Amino acid sequence: MARNTLDGPAITEALALLEGWALEHGATAIVKTYKFASFSEAFGFMTRAALAAETLDHHPEWFNSYNKVEVRLSTHSARGLTQLDFALAKAMDDIVDRRDSSRT
Ligand SMILES: C[C@H](O)[C@H](O)[C@H]1CNC2=NC(N)=NC(=O)C2=N1
């Protein structure tokens, strides 16, 4: 997947396809805070997200405190946002969606 930085309009378009992600000041990263019912669920999410990150060869910056996971996505090599950040954001959201739907 392309590691070229996205311009303003492309970022706006890509962000509109996601839920709960915000553009960080300076527009070089997107951020989202996930909240779970427990530490175990938060860490389960992080484990699955880590495997998705390895598959994409694109890795998050994140901070976990109990049931909260703060995620920051940016392409370090490009010093900005690329398709890879949005692909990982979508993969992380899909992991959460799958977890919710398997719990009916
Ligand atoms: C060699 C390897 O493809 C690179 O180091 C990858 C790994 N994961 C990465 N993750 C992120 N977020 N940015 C990068 O530039 C990056 N580069």
UniProtKB/TrEMBL annotation:
Stored InterPro entries: PCD_sf, Pterin_deHydtase
GO molecular function: 4-alpha-hydroxytetrahydrobiopterin dehydratase activity
Catalytic activity: (4aS,6R)-4a-hydroxy-L-erythro-5,6,7,8-tetrahydrobiopterin = (6R)-L-erythro-6,7-dihydrobiopterin + H2O
Superkingdom: Bacteria
Signal sequence residues: none
UniProt keyword Lyase, yes or no: yes
UniProt KW keywords: Lyase
One Gene Ontology term from the biological process aspect of the record: tetrahydrobiopterin biosynthetic process
EC number: 4.2.1.96
Enzyme class: lyase
Entry similarity comment: Belongs to the pterin-4-alpha-carbinolamine dehydratase family.
HAMAP family from the UniProt entry: Pterin_4_alpha
UniProt-listed NCBIfam families: PRK00823.1-2 (NF002017), PRK00823.1-3 (NF002018)
Protein name as annotated: Putative pterin-4-alpha-carbinolamine dehydratase
